[in-house]
Amino acid sequence: MALKGTTNLPRPEPRQSAPDVLAREIVERLTYRIGKNAVAAKPHDWLHAVILSIRDRVIDAWISSTQKTYEEEGRRVYYLSLEFLIGRLMRDAASNMELMDDMQAALASLGVDIDLIAALEPDAALGNGGLGRLAACFMESMATVDVPAYGYGIRYVNGMFRQEMSDGWQVELPETWLTHGNPWEFERREASYEVGFGGLVDPAEGENAGPHQMMWKPVERVIATPYDTPIAGWRGKRVNTLRLWEAQPIDPILLDKFNAGDHLGALSESNRAEALTRVLYPADSSAAGQELRLRQEYFFSSASLQDIVRRHLQYFGSIQTLPDKAAIQLNDTHPAVAVAELMRILLDIHGLDFDEAWDITRRTFSYTNHTLLPEALESWPVPLFERLLPRHMQIVYAVNSRLLAEARRSGQFDDGAISAISLIDEGGARRVRMGNLAFAGSHSVNGVSALHTDLMKVTVFSDLHRLYPARINNKTNGVTFRRWLMQCNHGLFELIREAIGDAFMDDAEALRDLDRFADDGAFQQRFMAVKRANKEALASLLRKRLNARIDPAALFDIQIKRIHEYKRQLLNIIEAVSLYDQIRSHPEKDWAPRVKLFGGKAAPSYHNAKLIIKLANDVARAVNYDPAVQGLLKVQFVPNYNVSMAEVMIPAADLSEQISTAGMEASGTGNMKFAVNGALTIGTLDGANVEMRDHVGEENIIIFGLTAQEVNERRAKGYDPREAIGQSKELSQALNAIASGVFSPDDPDRYKGLIDGIYNSDWFMVAADFDSYSAAQRRVDELWRDPAIWARMAIHNVARMGWFSSDRTIREYARDIWKIP
Fold first, then answer.
1. Does the record's keyword annotation contain Membrane (predicted)?
2. Which one of the listed residues 243, 312, 392, 567 is annotated catalytic?
């Protein structure tokens, strides 16, 4: 509520952005906000002053956006995600507010290099891989296309981890991005909420208590305090809010225990609360790790739901209208417990009837699925869930009872199908299926590529799809080209502007105009000169950080993503070993010089993924110092891959490795970023690769391997990997070299188990796809030898990627799911 008399206060004049005005403001903030003069200021001081100057302009647009009434906006979107991999924000905000050129000129007049200070901004450690980066792209696109939205997540103090290498092994260290504060965020202590765990559930008291109303009495409570970060859309049209929750204890210190000498016990509540928001994805290989992860998911889901309901009631008064004004999107199963939490709020706090509460819940939620891997569809042991969230367990059972009754009434399900639909997995130790809960509690369930969506209907959600055949729909992912072309690849951006004008800056599909330059020899040369400059920049960075010497004239073959067996970094490494053998055996051949770069983190408890990182480093050590292949093959693992590193590696890539086992990658977004930056894709027909092939043309992408249908057919027939290995001399030799200790002489058996997994089961079809992959790589060599053909294909990739803009994806969400004009 506004204070008396404040509604007529004059609004500040729009801020000017001329270089001389910006320069004065920067010096002013340096003096009065940081306490330094220009002579004494260090680079990090200049960075802070610049951020504050940009932030002021973002805040003007932010306040203007948030002052719009609900009546003007209609429905508001609330995007719940455990990750938001936003990266550095200075360039992003300056570019979207159209300040970049003026800011650069202002800093130059002050003798400050904008590139030098921009590199000092830490990456926000709020995510790990594609899921989190997608959420960040979506937040920017929602602001760009004028969708009013809040993002909700956790303010991780240490993120997942900072990855370093020790003798080739991954070492996990805390990511300390908040050590010196975060100038982009604003604490909102007035919007704090209590979140409870454990305790007892009793019937609600009083003559007005409803038949389904209960009273939950948590035995443990923490405070969720929000920190808001403004997310600016393109040209500053709208600024939305990313609200991240920090956990704080109700009693920071238990003085009675402290005074009794139990100093550690006195801080137990504080430590327990702080653990909730310290680390992203705590290792769940232990019971304690599983409990912490479930606590995290409920903590941020509960705080977010309380905030959404409070805001709705503040404006509209009636909880019954919630679905008309709020669209809550669950980004994967991590926030699925929000379905039960909203039911608890409606039943126990607002006293609604169960059926009415369930109707409101389903009309409010929608759910995005990101995986077909059953183990990635989270489930929690019933005893753990019931101990931490006893009231929610009751609600899950009540929802399940109605769900199964509905399935039985339909008459189309046998006992096996009924069991698959159930929210409780009865196979072995009983578990709560969070994917099924999200599906049942949402009016829309979407996949993130056409193939993924089709497979959802016949695999993980086949029976639920039969029960609700209209619920699954597709929304193919996209990326924001503001960051992934305009900002990270300035040379290419300017070349495109010169060739086709500025229309693509507002409509990515206008990139199609670049097609007419694909056969233009002069344009090809300029295009490849930009690529060469990007490669030189990456080579310089890797030499500085890792003392790695790579030749920018070589083909840069890059695979950067979360390390996982289904993403098949192992296939890439085995092929590198095979190529290494072939180069040494046939030195007379005209080999295309190649640099293979890897990057990505392995989950701390994922043994095989960490072993794959070690193998990549062991192979690199052998290959890079062998004079027989000098200049022809280099292998390098790049530690601590993050958004900032991606912004250097992606523009430098010639070849993008998108080689997951067909049918296992939901979409991929790295593939889109690489292609719009002029890299050719080598990949399987998996995820969004299928649609990329359709858009760029099958002649401009290198496809290999089994299709998803063929993978399933092989498994069904009893696939024998030994047969495939026996038929491939190159594969057999490479596997034998790795397994026998050629690359691990200090521990000859290090990779025996890893390679035995390929011989004995090969679930990820490494052996089955190897020969096809190897042949595709040799086709890449042939294409690379003809610069004109390579340049033409690369230009076509850039020109035809406009459809993969996250702006298009968000417009589809807004039209089809959120019902926002």
1. no
2. 567
Task: Determine the pLDDT at residue 8.
Answer: 61
Q: Which stretches of the chain score pLDDT less than 50?
A: 1-5, 263, 266-267
216 and 279 part of one domain: yes
Please tell me the number of Cα atoms within 13 Å of 509 on its side-chain side: 6
Report which of 452, 315, 409, 457 is spatially closest to residue 1, judged by C-alpha positions: 315
443 is catalytic: no
454 and 552 share one domain: no
The answer to whether residue 37 sits within a structural domain is: no
Asked whether residue 455 falls in the same domain as residue 487, the answer is: no
Among candidate residues 293, 673, 693, 800, the one labeled active-site is 673
HSE (CB half, 13 Å, CA atoms) of 126? 30
Active-site hit among 669, 681, 684, 809: 669
- Strand ranges, E, within 168-304: 169-173, 186-187, 193-197, 200-203, 214-217, 220-232, 239-249
- Rounded CA-CA distance 478/667 in Å is 9
Cα–Cα distance between 401 and 424 in angstroms, integer?
10
The answer to whether residue 95 sits within a structural domain is: no
Report yes or no: 364 and 323 within 8 Å, Cβ to Cβ.
yes
DSSP code, position 479: B
Shared domain for 461 and 505, answered yes or no, is no
Residue type at 352 in one-letter notation: L
- Tell me: the pLDDT tens digits for 599-620? 999 999 999 999 999 999 999 9
Give the active site residue among 88, 91, 238, 370: 370
Segment 78-126, tens digit of pLDDT: 999 999 999 999 999 999 999 999 999 999 999 999 999 999 999 999 9
Does 6 fall in a domain?
no
CATH number for the domain spanning 337: value is 3.40.50.2000
485, 470: one domain: no
Residue 371 · residue 686 · CB < 8 Å = no
Active site residue 669: yes
Helix, strand, coil % over all residues of the chain, rounded to 5: 55, 15, 35
Task: Specify whether 752 is catalytic.
Answer: no
| Residues 6 or more apart in contact with residue 190 via CB below 8 angstroms | none
521 and 404 within one domain? no
Query: Is residue 92 domain-resident?
Result: no
Total structural domains in the chain?
Answer: 2
pTM value surpassing 0.90? yes
Q: Which residues pair with 165 in a beta bridge?
A: 170
Find the helix or strand (DSSP H, E) in which 152 lies: strand 149-154
Residues 677 and 762 in one domain: yes
Residues 424 and 551 grouped into a single domain: no
Catalytic one of 433, 465, 562, 634: 562
Within 8 A by CB and 6+ apart from 349, the residues are: none
DSSP 11: P
Q: In this predicted structure, what is the pLDDT of residue 397?
A: 98
Task: Please give the DSSP secondary-structure letter assigned to residue 628.
Answer: G
One of 243, 392, 443, 561 is an active-site residue; which one? 561
pLDDT of residue 432: 98
Helices (H) and strands (E) in the chain, counts: 35, 23
Strands 162-166 and 169-173: antiparallel
In whole angstroms, what is the distance from residue 368 CA to residue 476 CA? 11
Residue 702 domain boundaries: 481-803
For residue 226, list its beta bridge partners.
Answer: 245
- The three-class DSSP label of residue 772 is helix
Question: Annotated catalytic, 312?
Answer: no
Q: pLDDT for 780-816, tens place per residue?
A: 999 999 999 999 999 999 999 999 999 999 999 999 9
CA 69 to CA 229: how far, in whole Å? 20
